[in-house]
Amino acid sequence: MIGLWIAKCISFILRWMGKSATSFPGKIALRLSPHLLDKLGSQLSRAIVITGTNGKTTTTRLLASMLKQEEPIATNAEGANLKQGILSALMEKTSWRGRLLVTTALLEIDEATLPQVASSLPIQLLVVTNIFRDQLDRYGELDTTLQKIREGAEQIQGTLLVNADDPLARFIGLHHKGQTLTYGFDNSMAREEDRQVMKDGAFCLECGHLLNYSGYFYGQLGVYNCPSCSFGRPDPDFVGSLDHHHLQIYNSQDQNKWTVPLPVKGLFNVDNVLAAVAAAHVCKLRIESMLKGLATYQAPTGRMQVFQTTPVSILNLIKNPAGCNGVLETICREGDAKVICLAINDEAADGRDVSWLWDADFELLANDESIVSIVTSGLRARDMAVRLKYAGYPVKQLYVETDFATALDKTLELANNMSIPSAFVMTTYTLVHLAAELLKERSDTNVEGAYHRASVS
């Protein structure tokens, strides 16, 4: 109990100071009471867990907004997804006597953390969004991430909901001992790949043969099959198709079809909405709760977050090739002229290894004449500039400014001088909250008044 009391006091002080209390209180509690997560987890009736490389935070936030329409929940929807963040989320809903005040927890859990905490939680539903290479220094290659999620899934007796469009997530679902359900896009949305971009999971995990694709959605997600064995994309249990600004979802199990509004843009985010709505259906939420939850959804910091600076600034988090490519494609689809600030750090939370910059498709920027200038910043500002040079972006339109605040000012200045309507800011994790603060200071409205476009995280 002493760990809980001290951690709750720390949480109160941090929030009184206007700071985040999403992780540090849990870190202290774990040191003082190593088994506190087990004790609190045992009081839950159910835990719903979201894991995967991209889309965890957005999917969790979407599902949380829907679940809250029917019951109070404990959630780490701000994205603190390591063990200390999970415990902080539970302690927030715990009395001073150690009694959990909710029966349901919705938790985003980091892929490497999942096997460490799965046995401490009564996981009724585990959602696997996708699996891409991410933070090579921490996870290693793709096989390590895949194995961590499999180890976590082996510890649960509940339902596994996986992305059928991703052969890696599909492989995990095939080997789950409990019930497995799938979600995915309608085949009609798949397209031929017009760019030669490095893709993860190109080979069948059952036999090692190169997979055949009849079409792609994004990354390695698409309509695939193995020509050498029976492995292939199944017909998803929950099928999503775009209808203007709405998502049509067909449940092949009960033959029902319903339409929900899209509170976000971009194909990555449509996939996140599909995952969240499918999970809500598995959790037996009413359709009214789903619709109200989507209508009241508030996106997390740095997910194509728009600030009313002059000109307008759009902030997005990037952290790996697949997610970065999704942001780049979204930016390039914006027709107007634009200036971009690319800020890359290599702190522990960002990943020390920045070789992923060479796997991301920055050639998209070089081929887009609407991008009139790019400013690079952060600890690896020069590495980013070199990558852009090799991508073919004109050096005379490239600026390097290691001080991030100065880089933001330079970006806005360049856009203003050329009467450009918007500036895009892309940062790694340790800069995204600082970027939000700095852009808020330079805005006519505060961050709560900001709105959001497409996101991939």
Automatic annotation (TrEMBL):
<dbReference type="Pfam" id="PF08245">
    <property type="entry name" value="Mur_ligase_M"/>
</dbReference>
<feature type="domain" description="Mur ligase central">
    <location>
        <begin position="50"/>
        <end position="280"/>
    </location>
</feature>
<keyword id="KW-0133">Cell shape</keyword>
<keyword id="KW-0547">Nucleotide-binding</keyword>
<feature type="binding site">
    <location>
        <position position="207"/>
    </location>
    <ligand>
        <name>Zn(2+)</name>
    </ligand>
</feature>
<dbReference type="GO" id="GO:0016881">
    <property type="term" value="F:acid-amino acid ligase activity"/>
</dbReference>
<feature type="binding site">
    <location>
        <position position="204"/>
    </location>
    <ligand>
        <name>Zn(2+)</name>
    </ligand>
</feature>
<dbReference type="InterPro" id="IPR043703">
    <property type="entry name" value="Lipid_II_synth_MurT"/>
</dbReference>
<dbReference type="GO" id="GO:0071555">
    <property type="term" value="P:cell wall organization"/>
</dbReference>
<keyword id="KW-0479">Metal-binding</keyword>
<protein>
    <recommendedName>
        <fullName>Lipid II isoglutaminyl synthase (glutamine-hydrolyzing) subunit MurT</fullName>
        <ecNumber>6.3.5.13</ecNumber>
    </recommendedName>
</protein>
<dbReference type="GO" id="GO:0140282">
    <property type="term" value="F:carbon-nitrogen ligase activity on lipid II"/>
</dbReference>
<keyword id="KW-0067">ATP-binding</keyword>
<feature type="domain" description="Lipid II isoglutaminyl synthase (glutamine-hydrolyzing) subunit MurT C-terminal">
    <location>
        <begin position="317"/>
        <end position="430"/>
    </location>
</feature>
<keyword id="KW-0573">Peptidoglycan synthesis</keyword>
<comment type="pathway">
    <text>Cell wall biogenesis; peptidoglycan biosynthesis.</text>
</comment>
<comment type="similarity">
    <text>Belongs to the MurCDEF family. MurT subfamily.</text>
</comment>
<dbReference type="InterPro" id="IPR013221">
    <property type="entry name" value="Mur_ligase_cen"/>
</dbReference>
<dbReference type="InterPro" id="IPR013564">
    <property type="entry name" value="MurT_C"/>
</dbReference>
<feature type="binding site">
    <location>
        <position position="229"/>
    </location>
    <ligand>
        <name>Zn(2+)</name>
    </ligand>
</feature>
<comment type="subunit">
    <text>Forms a heterodimer with GatD.</text>
</comment>
<dbReference type="InterPro" id="IPR036565">
    <property type="entry name" value="Mur-like_cat_sf"/>
</dbReference>
<dbReference type="GO" id="GO:0008360">
    <property type="term" value="P:regulation of cell shape"/>
</dbReference>
<dbReference type="GO" id="GO:0005524">
    <property type="term" value="F:ATP binding"/>
</dbReference>
<dbReference type="GO" id="GO:0008270">
    <property type="term" value="F:zinc ion binding"/>
</dbReference>
<dbReference type="GO" id="GO:0009252">
    <property type="term" value="P:peptidoglycan biosynthetic process"/>
</dbReference>
<keyword id="KW-0961">Cell wall biogenesis/degradation</keyword>
<dbReference type="Pfam" id="PF08353">
    <property type="entry name" value="MurT_C"/>
</dbReference>
<keyword id="KW-0862">Zinc</keyword>
<comment type="function">
    <text>The lipid II isoglutaminyl synthase complex catalyzes the formation of alpha-D-isoglutamine in the cell wall lipid II stem peptide. The MurT subunit catalyzes the ATP-dependent amidation of D-glutamate residue of lipid II, converting it to an isoglutamine residue.</text>
</comment>
<feature type="binding site">
    <location>
        <position position="226"/>
    </location>
    <ligand>
        <name>Zn(2+)</name>
    </ligand>
</feature>
<keyword id="KW-0436">Ligase</keyword>
<feature type="active site">
    <location>
        <position position="353"/>
    </location>
</feature>
